[in-house]
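> example.struct
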């Protein structure tokens, strides 16, 4: 049940008529409390969408009562009218729920540069409110899809030091423009644990740093990226930051992995692990450089273990390493040894969907993994034809 698995939450997903396909396109998530704690992270893209600007202000006091999300339109690059539309959406939702508009989080996803059909959204809010249910998590996850082929949900259950059980649930959407800064696409996470806003903010940033921030499909950062975390406190469990953080990171990691697995047109999911680096930052920079190499990604699509393209990408970074000490393995075969020819590249099997590339810098003890995917004909086709 994803976001409605934790106690204290209801959700709905309805068809408001925003999508030409007639598929569900409006989701509502409500925190019934007793607590209303929240934290969020957003895109670092300087061209941010109107709902991002609105929701940044909403979450500043650490409280969010509800999240209203639409697919079928990003409400990005829409000027003052776009911000007013986000405001109006919050006001209508607040009116329907009997809460304050300044406690309503707004998210949008879809085509950039068009105004939203507000008459459809406002009518849809009424429908969504009437359809709210403690079993509505899956419907909400479906309603936020755009080019996604499947909905994406995850659940974790843990206990606090006294044995009280708490649950964390999450839903995400995203299949392209996956190169986040602090978040990725649209993600809503709920928990029935008792967690104060300050702690929520810390653990959320820690979790997104090593999960969503390391899902880099195509190097393109969205204008609407948002991850919001809501805590109802309904279970009465009070986990430590460490225990809660472990569960949250697990949920975020599962959702991030599902985002990469559904990347537009991809035929391979690629984990690029850089290890024995001088710092975690160096390891991440190296892995991300390879993940953003179109030459490398095209080679994997062609099932070609071209390790020269890996080394070329590594060499563009400022990470600490000696070129003649670099090692590269693909799916367990060390095809580059000490910056030169290793085992026969013909031994590498790139038929499986998952590909593991391991880069040994021999410069320290740190490591980081970036998940990406290959560059395919279908990716080019889908993104040349996409307009809704």
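> example.seq
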């Amino acid at each position: 049940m994803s976001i409605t698995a934790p106690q204290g939450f209801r959700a709905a997903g309805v068809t408001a008529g925003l999508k030409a396909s007639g598929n569900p396109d409006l989701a509502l998530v409500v925190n019934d409390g007793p607590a209303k704690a929240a934290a969020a992270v957003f895109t670092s893209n300087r061209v941010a969408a109107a709902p991002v600007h609105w929701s940044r202000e909403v979450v500043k006091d650490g409280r969010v009562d509800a999240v209203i999300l639409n697919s079928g339109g990003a409400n990005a690059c829409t000027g003052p009218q776009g911000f007013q539309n986000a405001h109006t959406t919050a006001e209508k939702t607040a009116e329907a729920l009997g809460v304050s508009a300044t406690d309503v989080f707004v998210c949008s996803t879809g085509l950039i540069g068009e105004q939203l059909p507000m008459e459809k959204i406002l009518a849809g809010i009424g429908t969504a409110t009437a359809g709210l249910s403690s079993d509505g998590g899956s419907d909400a996850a479906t309603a936020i899809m755009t080019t996604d082929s499947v909905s994406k949900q995850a659940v974790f259950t843990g206990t606090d030091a006294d044995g009280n059980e708490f649950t964390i649930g999450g839903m995400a959407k995203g299949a392209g423009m996956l190169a986040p800064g602090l978040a990725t696409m649209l993600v809503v996470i709920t928990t029935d644990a008792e967690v104060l806003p300050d702690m929520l903010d810390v653990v959320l940033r820690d979790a997104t740093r090593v999960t969503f921030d390391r899902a880099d499909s195509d190097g393109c950062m969205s204008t609407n990226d948002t991850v919001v975390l809501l805590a109802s406190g309904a279970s009465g469990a009070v986990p430590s930051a460490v225990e809660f953080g472990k569960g949250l990171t697990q949920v975020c990691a599962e959702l991030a992995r599902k985002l990469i697995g559904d990347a537009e047109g991809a035929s391979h999911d690629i984990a690029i692990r850089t290890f024995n680096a001088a710092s975690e930052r160096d390891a991440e920079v190296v892995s991300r450089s390879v993940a953003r190499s179109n030459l490398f990604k095209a080679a994997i699509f062609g099932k070609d273990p071209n390790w020269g393209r890996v080394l070329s990408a590594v060499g563009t970074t400022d990470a600490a390493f000696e070129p003649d000490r670099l090692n590269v393995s693909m799916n367990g075969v060390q095809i580059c040894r000490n910056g030169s020819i290793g085992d026969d590249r013909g031994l590498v099997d790139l038929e499986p969907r998952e590909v593991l590339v391991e880069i040994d810098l021999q410069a320290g003890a740190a490591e980081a993994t970036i998940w990406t995917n290959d560059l395919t004909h279908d990716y080019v086709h889908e993104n040349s034809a996409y307009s809704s």
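> remarks
DSSP finds ten helices and 15 strands in the chain.
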